[in-house]
Amino acid sequence: MLVTQGKAIRTHGGATIPTEKYIDGVSFSARAKEHIAEKKAIAREAVKFLNPGDNIFIDDSSTCLSMAEFIPYNKPLIITTTSLTAALEFNKCTKSTVFSLGGELHKTAHSCFGPITQNLLKSMYFKIAFLGFYSITSDGLITTNSVNDLEIKKLIIQHSEKTVALIDSSKIHEPRFFQLGTISEVDALVTDSGISEAFVDCCRENKVELIIANV
Q1: Which domains does the chain have, with CATH numbers?
Q2: What residues does the DeoR-like transcriptional repressor C-terminal sensor domain cover (predicted)?
Q3: pTM of the entire structure?
């Protein structure tokens, strides 16, 4: 049953729990193809936070990667990312300087993680961090299935003056395995109109700037 649901992978000796690339039965490449219109609309709103000369961090989430399509190529920015895909895309911005953080390379997400990445982040500070999350509950818990995601994003939030969460409404659901933080640690959140009134109230109560992208 778990195999047919994508929650386990059949082996010669039985079945195993899938690796991180198959969390919830969806690979990272497949995840990038979901909710495309919502992700683009969210990314279009996100770039409005940017001012010339800003020192920003952009993570490896598929929604954050969509920002590359909307950042003006002639806007001078300092962009840091753990994502090789994002680094190559943002490097097309002729006026921007791009830093690609090293570390252990994820096999499918094409982004770096681990102790080397964490040590690099500890020496850096950002004006704005744009982050995607596996899940935010309607009462404001930020959760993840990935220990690597947990450690990296905690550091980025600590080392950023402003944190902007970019999530489509499908990410607002039941908690995952690890708690990363709470919505009170986020300064602004960009999403689509599929969110619940309970989540709107949660953002208001925690003084989070909520931006609804027009899809």
Answers
A1: 1-26 (no CATH), 32-212 (3.40.50.1360)
A2: 35-193
A3: 0.85
